[in-house]
Amino acid sequence: MGQEQSSNSSNTSDSSFRFWPRRGRDSGRSEPKSCSNYVVVVNPGNRNDQVDIPELAKLKEIPIFYPILRSNLNIPGLTNPPDIRTKLSPFAIYAILQKLQNRLWVNAERVSSEQRKLSAETKKIDSVIVGLKAYPHERCNQLLHLKGELLRIDSLYLQISSISEMLREAASLAKSLNSRLPISDRLPELVFNDDMSGLSQPVEEQRVVDLGVLQDFSKLTTMIPRM
């Protein structure tokens, strides 16, 4: 047994002696490794559970604080105490819920009033839009009516132009007749302006002219109206 132990010890020593030089050679040849490949073990030392500081002892004597509803912590084995309903007073929660209900009611009333205002404004806008839709139709009808009136004005202008031509022809005939009368019996000459406003020399009286002296005409009595 002694030989076996000695042989084992020699083998271990040889292996250890072989390991360190080889490690040194390998470390010399290879690149330096990072520190993450090594694990550092720290000796925890002797832990003394007894605390000599009185403040720490008082802190350790304080029990763990749990909420009233312990089941909310989701810790296995931790349940609510059986007398939890007697410890909880519903009046505070009821008061909070009443305040919340009142606040919600006030907000609902405000929202409903704003909605009524918006609906009224929407109706007003709809009525204005309907009026705006009817406005172009009315204007279009007015334009069509004015177009018809303009066409009537054009026709009246053509009629007035034809009447003006007829009057000019009549004036030329009257001028020729007037030139055949004696000088004492001649009437003032009819002269039309461009705007056909009337005579250049107004006639003050009506005269009856005897045309029996003319050779080309038979006896004719005519009346020239006062212009």
TrEMBL record:
UniProt biased composition (Basic and acidic residues): 23-32
Q: Where is the composition biased (Low complexity)?
A: 1-16
* One Pfam family hit: LOH1CR12
- CDD domains from the entry? BORCS5-like
Source organism's superkingdom? Eukaryota
A cellular component term (GO) from this record?
Answer: synaptic vesicle membrane
Q: Where in the cell is it found?
A: Lysosome membrane
- Annotated stretches, region: Disordered: 1-35
Q: Which family does it belong to?
A: Belongs to the BORCS5 family.
Q: Please state what the protein is called.
A: BLOC-1-related complex subunit 5
